[in-house]
Amino acid sequence: MPYAPARSARLYYEDSGRGTPIVFVHEFSGDLRSWEDQIRHFSRRHRCIAFNARGYPPSEVPKSWTKYSQAIASDDIAAVMRHCSLNKAHIIGCSMGAASTLHFGLHYPRMAQSLTLIGAGSGSDPKKHKAFLRNTAIRAREFETLPLQDIAKTYRNAPNRVQLLHKDPRAWREFWRRFCEHSGLGHANTLRGIQMRRPAIQSLERGLRRLKVPLHVVVGDEDENALDAGLFIKRTCAAARLTVVPATGHVVNLEEPAHFNRITDEFLALVESRRWRPRARKNNQ
User: Fold this and answer.
1) Which residue from 43, 50, 82, 265 has the highest number of Cβ atoms inside 10 Å of its Cβ?
2) Angle separating helix axes 148-155 and 129-145, nearest 10 degrees
3) Rg (alpha carbons) of the chain, rounded to whole number
């Protein structure tokens, strides 16, 4: 099995195809297998690298939550790239992976050819932040004490998740079967170290205004938290374009893989042909 060395953990990754590289960064409930439709599509013309975050076997699962943080998560992307001898790549992340992708772009802009964020923004609503922290702490304890099969019953019926069941029951069942193969300790530590302590999207305004890396924000119109965050990023960052996918929830690449692959193909082609341009700012910006 191929592993990339990172701070306090080894990260399992898979490497497919040839061409301009793309690095895929998965969400909290998923793993690198969540990108299968994208890897099959993009590996025809790109080198595709997907890895499991720390805490997600067969990547290592550090026992202490202090070995997990948003900064470490973005550093892990850089560690995988360096191990694979990549100076620059397109980075595509979903949800938790979208947050890591955004922070990677802010801290390692020279290593990012472009950034694609799917469903970014969980926990960013200031009006709901206290409830978010309280509920996340409860979930972390549940991951330590309950079987993953029991926890999956709650997660899979969330309003921004159930659309996948309606559209593709087979993919829905497969996704949650894979979820139950994860590490409860890894999930608990990820919640405590990353999700409960990562900064809200709105707090990144200064960095977003300065960001020049081409940025594509993709959000389903049934994913309310991500809609608000996506609009904020679009309004703040001149480098950003926003795509809202109708009748779609949190995980756009799973719910609408053909559509996501098409719009991402178009975005990457603009970037690689140097035809992508940031929008002009208003005089008062």
Assistant:
1) 50
2) 150
3) 18
What is the pLDDT, as a whole number, of residue 44? 97
Q: What sign results for the dihedral spanned by CA atoms 76, 179, 150, 251? A: positive
For 226, other C-beta atoms within 10 Å of its C-beta total 29
Q: Measure the CA–CA gap between 36 and 33, rounded to whole angstroms.
A: 5
Per-residue model confidence (pLDDT) at position 157:
79
How many Cβ atoms are within 10 Å of 284's Cβ, its own excluded?
Answer: 4
DSSP 91-156: EEEETHHHHHHHHHHHH-GGGEEEEEEES--TT--GGGHHHHHHHHHHHHHHHHHS-HHHHHHHHT
pLDDT band at 281 (very low <50, low <70, confident <90, very high): low
Residues 86-142 have pLDDT tens digits of 999 999 999 999 999 999 999 999 999 999 999 998 877 777 888 989 999 999 999
Q: Kindly state the DSSP code that residue 265 receives in the 8-state scheme.
A: H
The two structure tokens encoding residue 125:
């609503």
Contact 120, 160 (CB under 8 A): no
CA distance 66 to 36: 31
H helical segments located in the chain: 36-42, 70-83, 96-107, 129-145, 148-155, 162-167, 169-179, 184-190, 205-210, 224-236, 252-255, 257-272
Q: Hey, what amino acid is at 36?
A: E
Per-residue tokens: 150: 């029991």
Tokens describing residue 144: 């330590």
Quick count: other Cβ atoms within 10 Å of Cβ 137?
Answer: 13
Each residue's pLDDT tens digit, 30-48: 999 999 999 999 999 999 9
Mean pLDDT in residue range 24-32: 97
Compute CA distances 116 → 43, 175, 232, 283, whole Å.
17, 22, 15, 27
Residue appearing with tokens 């953990």: 9
Q: How far apart are CA 255 and CA 137, in angstroms?
A: 28
